[in-house]
């Protein structure tokens, strides 16, 4: 009987968990090494008194990418993975009293935006259909395949995409494309915001990123029935059922070479070493090169790509409920361009766009009756090591409370019962993400997609890369796709 092949995975983020399931389903003996004492990376939860909070992601699209993991086994195991599909996608508020709402029902969204923002329904229709068209033209080819294989480039779909290059808005920024289409600057702002879904700046990112609304309106927005953490929790349980071993509190400190083009295995901080046929890194690609391979030259090269933005989050237990808010709420800044200018300079803007995410609207057990759990977030620059975060957080907290209080019509302060604060330094330390970037590298220039690190090492044939810092990029769906691409690459090998 031939012995099972062995795979070692560094990190148990969403991509590491998906990879573990995929390799176990392929018949590999899989071990996942996780530096912290829990699985999930940025996708974990915590309680603050009677309030439950998801630490990181709040928006869940493309659930089929999770569901397909549960179908990899011929006899699918009971996944327990259930979610609400949201009828309301997001509520938007401006300081001048303008409000609007977007819905899963695209026609209703178009009618509502047209009415609330005096926008042309035809232009809105055109925007959503262009978003879908962009996805159909390039999404499948470029997001689901390695860009570093000739096979990808030789498919008919690439030729088709190249023929439609002008419609892809590659040479315009997102903002330029949106300004050209919409009459109202508020509609422009609403659609520019999609750049932040991968930590980019709409005034720099290519118009191709107008593909992102299709993720939300084409595939819907969802909330797992036990919160976002249920995504990683259910994949973790599934992996355990498939026989995957998880070594927690096990920081990998070296990737060991067999020879100049093959990896032998991994060494942990404890000094223990393990041999593997295949090694997959789900840790930040910069750290993988700098710390584990000690390849400072390659690590420095990776730093030439701009990092994505980070976040400042106030997790507030609120002693009151607010019927005007839904699960996802945005309170826009007056001057979006200045806000991004500040983030680009490593600063926080004094009128930031505030995102309030309240899972207790759908999951009543997340807060006591009559109370709410507010995940209140603003986009923040990544940690460049020079900022005075304590001072910046103090000022931002006041401005955010002021902005929300103006919107609700009274002082929010006395309703804040519990508070936990997370800033880019915490994100960096807790999830070992270089500079605390939420999504690895940004898409702030049109070549960013091609500059992201590939999913297979150009040097070591049995070393692979997955997760937010490599192709196809950050965010839950793309991280899941990175594991799918590596699954295909290993099959081809
Ligand atoms: C505040 C916030 C909000 C976000 N909002 C959204 C959202 O709404 N929607 C969305 O889709 N995405 C969102 N994201 C982005 C999303 O969370 C990430 O893109 C995704 O979770 C990254 O997953 P990953 O697989 O790259 O691994 P990560 O989650 O980065 O996990 C990597 C894991 O590797 C471990 N590790 C690192 N180095 C080592 C080592 N040497 N040895 C052992 N283990 C190691 C770490 O401890 C960690 O557990 C958000 C992120 C944050 C922080």
Task: Explain what this protein looks like in three dimensions.
The protein has 493 residues and is an alpha/beta fold. The chain folds into three domains: 6-40 and 228-304 and 445-492, FAD/NAD(P)-binding domain (3-Layer(bba) Sandwich), CATH 3.50.50; 87-220, no CATH class; 309-381 and 384-422, no CATH class. 36% of the residues lie in helices and 20% in strands. It has helices spanning 14-25, 64-70, 106-116, 121-143, 150-153, 156-163, 165-168, 174-181, 185-192, 212-219, 229-241, 285-292, 296-302, 336-344, 389-408, 424-431, 448-451, 476-492; strands at 6-10, 29-33, 45-48, 51-54, 83-85, 88-93, 99-103, 222-224, 245-247, 252-259, 262-268, 273-275, 278-281, 310-318, 328-331, 354-358, 372-380, 416-422, 463-465. The protein is globular, with a radius of gyration of 22 Å. The model has no long low-confidence stretch (mean pLDDT 94). It binds flavin-adenine dinucleotide.
């Amino acid at each position: 009987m031939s012995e099972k092949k062995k795979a070692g995975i560094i990190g148990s983020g969403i991509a590491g968990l998906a990879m573990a399931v995929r390799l176990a389903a392929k018949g590999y003996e899989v071990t996942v090494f996780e530096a912290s004492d829990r699985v999930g990376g940025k996708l974990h939860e915590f309680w603050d008194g009677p309030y439950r909070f998801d630490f990181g992601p709040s928006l869940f699209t493309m659930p089929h990418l999770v569901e397909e993991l549960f179908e990899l086994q011929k006899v699918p195991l009971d996944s327990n993975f259930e979610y609400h599909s949201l009828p309301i996608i997001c509520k938007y508020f401006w300081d001048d009293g303008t409000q609007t709402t977007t819905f899963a029902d695209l026609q209703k969204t178009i009618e509502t935006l047209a009415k609330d923002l005096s926008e042309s329904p035809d232009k809105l229709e055109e925007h959503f259909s262009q978003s879908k068209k962009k996805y159909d033209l390039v999404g499948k080819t470029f997001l689901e395949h390695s860009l570093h294989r000739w096979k990808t480039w030789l498919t008919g779909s690439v030729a088709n995409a190249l023929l439609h290059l002008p419609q892809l808005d590659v040479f315009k920024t997102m903002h330029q494309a949106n300004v050209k289409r919409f009459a109202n600057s508020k509609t422009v702002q609403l659609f520019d915001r999609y750049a932040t879904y991968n930590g980019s700046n709409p005034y720099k990112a290519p118009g191709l990123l107008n593909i992102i609304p299709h993720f939300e309106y084409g595939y819907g927005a969802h909330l797992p029935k036990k919160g976002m953490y249920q995504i990683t929790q259910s994949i973790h349980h599934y992996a355990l059922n498939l026989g995957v071993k998880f070594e927690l509190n096990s920081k990998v400190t070296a990737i060991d070479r067999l020879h100049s083009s093959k990896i032998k295995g991994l060494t942990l901080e404890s000094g223990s070493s393990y041999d593997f046929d295949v090694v997959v890194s789900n840790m930040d690609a910069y750290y993988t090169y700098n710390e584990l391979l000690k390849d400072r030259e390659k690590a420095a090269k990776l730093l030439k790509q701009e990092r994505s933005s980070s976040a400042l989050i106030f997790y507030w237990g609120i002693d009151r409920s607010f019927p005007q808010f839904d699960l996802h709420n945005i309170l826009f800044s007056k001057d979006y361009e200045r806000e991004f200018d500040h983030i680009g300079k490593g600063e926080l803007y004094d009128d930031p766009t505030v995102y309030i995410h309240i899972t207790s609207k759908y999951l009543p057990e997340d807060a006591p009756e009559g109370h709410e759990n507010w995940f209140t977030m603003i986009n923040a620059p990544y940690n460049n090591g020079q900022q005075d975060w304590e001072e910046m957080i103090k000022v931002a907290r006041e401005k955010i409370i002021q902005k929300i209080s103006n919107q609700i019509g009274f002082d929010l302060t006395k309703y804040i019962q519990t508070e936990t604060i997370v800033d880019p330094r915490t994100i960096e330390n807790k999830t070992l993400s270089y500079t605390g970037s939420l999504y690895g590298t940004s898409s702030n220039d049109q070549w960013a997609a091609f500059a992201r690190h590939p999913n297979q090492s150009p040097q070591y044939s049995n070393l692979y890369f997955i997760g937010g810092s490599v192709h196809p990029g950050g965010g839950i769906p793309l991280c899941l796709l990175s594991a799918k691409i590596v699954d295909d690459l290993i099959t081809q090998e």
